[in-house]
Each structure stands twice: as C-alpha cells, then as structure tokens.
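Amino acids appear as letters; backbone shape is given numerically. Here is one record.
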Amino acid sequence: MKVFIFIVMIVPFLMTSFLNGQSNNERGRDTSYPPLEFGGNIVKANVIKRESPKYSTSIIELDLRFYIKNISNANVILLNDRFACSKIRISKTLESLDQNNPENSLYNFPLSSGFIDSEEWLRNKQVLDKQNPPADKVVLLEPDQTIHYGDKISFLVPNSSKTILTPPVWNQMTLAELKQEQQLYLRLEECNILNYGIENKGFKDRLSFAKELKSRWKAHGTLWLQEINSVPIELDLKD
C-alpha cells in the first residue's frame, strides 16, 4: 500500500517537472532569437482610382502608425528603428488571415532599392565594427519596450478581374471588391529591418560580418537579423 501511494504521489511530480522543463526549453529557444511584435494602425487610407484605359490598376495609399515591441525577456538590438516589407496580404476574416489561406489576396508594393554598393558598405562597416553596439547607430530594445514610427506605403490593385494575370500568380481582390467589404484585415509580410546593407543577398562577407557582430554583442542583447510579419491590421476602404 505504501509503495502504491508513493507511485501515485511521484508520478504527478515527475510530469510537472517534465512540463516545466519543456517550458524552460521553450523560453531557452526564445533567447536565440527574442521575439518582436510588429504592428500598427492605419491613420488614413487614400484610393487613387485610375479609370483611363491606359491603366489596368489603381493605387491604394496607406498612412500608418507602426510599433515594434520586444515581447521577450531579453534585450534585442536593431540596426534601425523601422522595417521595410515587400508584400501585403489582405483577408475578409481574421481567422483566414492567420491561416495563410490561399484565398487571401496578396499584393506586392514597390520599395526603394535596398542595394548598398561596395564603397558605401565599407563606410557602414566601419561605423558598426565596434566592440560594443554604438548607441547612436543602433536601437536597444529592452524587454516590454516599444518604439513607434510613422510611414506611408502604397500598392497596386487590379481595376477588374480582366486585368488579373491568367493564371494569377496569387489571388487578388479587385478595387471594387475591396471597397465593398464591410471589414478587411491586412498583414505586412517579408519585413526586414533596414540594416546598412549588412545582409544584402549574394554578399557572403557581409553575412559573415553580421554573424560576427551578433556573437560580439551578445552580452548586450541579440542582434535581430531575421524577417518578420506584422500582426493583423484592420483595413476599411468603404466610400
């Protein structure tokens, strides 16, 4: 009987320890890349409808107020205070947006060239090549700290279903469809921190330097080098 009682008491203890260990491991993985939350709200939406036969698309301009929040328990080092994104995903429901539903509409929007030539790169490298993160050149986000910034983005939408590529590269609602919806949600995708050209694709020396900086500065925080998607943002284009 005593043996049975001991087993009954020890099993819950072992299970709790195991689950706590898993939880600690999960938190441990967070410290390799402390998570950020990137989001915002639309201050103003402007639709530029181009009805001329010359154009098959119209322009949607969004004035946004963004935030970047450190939601981890470790410092995060950013090489700039804003993200540059390359895609917008729009959905009629929040649930389907989170599920990356293939029926969601996906749009590219133009970005200024992120290419940094060799001469400018050498100047940037000299600025960053310090034993400690240069306080005037980087942003150090402490746990639960949030920074804000404003930005404008614009993207093209098809005027009608006839202007969509056949077969389409991805699903896209037309301007009329977007404007008739009572509620829409958008998410910015493939967002990278503007980073002095440190990660321009195709330059192995720059990537090696980035990894070296990450290791060198780890006592101050984790250098953020990965892509991120924004949290869902409400979009209203009704007239």
